[in-house]
Amino acid sequence: MPWRCLPHSEAMREPGQCAGSRGDGATSRRKALDAKMDTAKEKCCGNTLSAPLTLARQTEKQACQLARDVKTLIHWLAHDILALAGPVLEERQVLFDFIVAELRHREHLDPPRIRPVHTALEKQRDDLLAFAGVLDEKLAGIAQDCDAPLHLVRDVCLLQRKSPSSNAYWQRWNLLYKKLGGKFQRVADAVVDAMKNIPRASSLVENLNSRLRNYFFLRRQLGAPYLNLLQFFLNHRTFLRSQRPERVGKSPKELMTGQSHPHWLELLGFTRFHLP
Question: Which of 101, 188, 220, 254 has a Cα at 20 to 30 A from 245?
Answer without folding.
Answer: 188
